[in-house]
Design a protein that fits this description.
Elements lengths: L5 E12 L2 E13 L4 E5 L6 H8 L7 E10 L2 E2 L5 H8 L4 E4 L13 H12 L4 H14 L16 H13 L5 E5 L7 H18 L2 E6 L2 H7 L2 E6 L2 E7 H6 L4 H8 L21 E2 L26 E2 L8 E2 L7 H8 L17
Parallel strand pairs: 3-8, 3-9, 6-7, 7-8
Antiparallel strand pairs: 1-2, 1-4, 2-11, 4-5, 9-10, 10-13, 12-13
Helix pairs in contact: 3-4, 4-5
Length: 349
């Protein structure tokens, strides 16, 4: 049996600060198979983008993988040098669609020149073949083919985002890492780009790591999902299993914080507080201080991702109360005047 395309095992990423080592990712584990669309969801500050940058060796100078492994096609890549990453993985094997398109395009080069540089470095394609591939991708993302020779400043913000997507896809990489890829785009263009990705998935076994705070997009577009809170993966499994039977308090509260067209009158969940900044080793559940059902045990050690009781063999949650938390949540119901749920923190045992 072939190895998964990407394996992340017990990965910890930390940043050096004046106050000490800030932990952005703690003990994260999941795999992405060939042709799989995998969603990584969570609030801002949960560690999603840091994890993605670790995969492509794009951490800031003060960031480092302090433990755990990253494997691509069975080979460990977390210690590869910059030249090896450029020659073997970036663009051709793994491409990256960042959030900040305006900071990602070289303002002094035409888009076609940037594509030519990528193509010459990572393929044997001629300059003319590169131009034709870029034109095709401009058409896919809704840009006029005649504009491939424009400079970035000649595009609006949304057009720049589409140009970045075109550059990320034109070499047909095996894995596309997309960090909030369509936030600057209208819903029609979002739908067009995801339809293209779906076609590519079917024809070439392209995999996608979709990073977003909007879990509804993941449930619609992805096969599998992991939900992160303050450095930790709180729950993972098939998109259907996590949607239908979420077991970690953060997972089901986060899911209920987004509207569902099937339940237009449902009150949206509110999660009080903010993800904490964690220094050094993380030896607690990072959601404990925000969780209405936390007990002493939640603050005594970092919970492991353990299988939860449904039909999905990959479904796991990192919660010591996974078997009862959702039942307690459902039992709370809504408050009498219909303004939302009333969830009072439980007393510690």
């Amino acid at each position: 049996m072939s190895a998964p395309l990407l394996e992340i095992e017990d990965l910890t990423v930390q940043y050096r600060t004046n106050q000490g080592m800030l932990t952005a990712v703690s003990g994260a584990s999941f795999t992405i198979e060939r042709g799989e669309f995998f969603g990584l969801a969570g609030e801002s500050g949960s560690g999603k983008s840091t994890l993605a940058k670790a995969i492509i060796g794009g951490l800031d100078d003060n960031g480092e993988v302090t433990s755990g492994t990253l494997r691509y096609r069975g080979e460990e890549i977390q210690d590869l040098a910059e030249t090896e990453l450029n020659e073997r993985l970036r663009w051709k094997e793994i491409s990256w669609i960042p959030q900040s398109s305006m900071n990602s395009l070289d303002p002094l080069q035409r888009v076609s020149e940037q594509a030519a540089e990528i193509g010459r470095t990572h393929t044997d394609l001629s300059d003319e073949a590169i131009r034709e591939k870029l034109k095709e991708m401009f058409d896919v993302v809704g840009l006029q083919q005649s504009r491939i020779d424009d400079y970035p400043h000649q595009f609006s913000g949304g057009m720049q985002q589409r140009a970045i997507i075109a550059l990320a896809l034109f070499l047909e990489p095996s894995l596309v890492i997309a960090d909030e890829p369509t936030t600057a785009l209208d819903v029609i263009m979002q739908d067009q780009i995801f339809k293209y990705l779906d076609r590519t998935k079917t024809s070439t076994d392209t995999s996608l790591l979709l990073i977003t705070h909007d879990i509804s997009v993941i449930f619609e577009s992805c096969d599998s999902v992991a939900i992160m809170h303050a450095s930790q993966v709180t729950e993972r499994g098939s998109a259907q299993a996590v949607h239908d039977n979420p077991r970690h308090p953060y997972a089901f509260m986060f899911k209920e914080a987004f509207p569902d067209i099937r339940e237009p009158k449902r009150e949206l969940e509110v999660i009080d507080g903010y993800p904490p900044e964690l220094m050094g080793d993380v030896d607690i559940c990072s959601f404990a201080d925000r969780c209405p059902w936390a007990v002493d045990e939640c603050r005594q050690s970092a919970p492991s991702l353990d299988p939860v009781g449904d039909d999905d063999a990959t479904h796991a949650a990192a919660c010591v109360r996974a078997d009862e938390a959702y039942e307690l949540y459902e039992a709370e119901g809504t408050d009498p005047d219909g303004t939302g749920r009333t969830i009072a923190p439980e007393e510690d045992d």
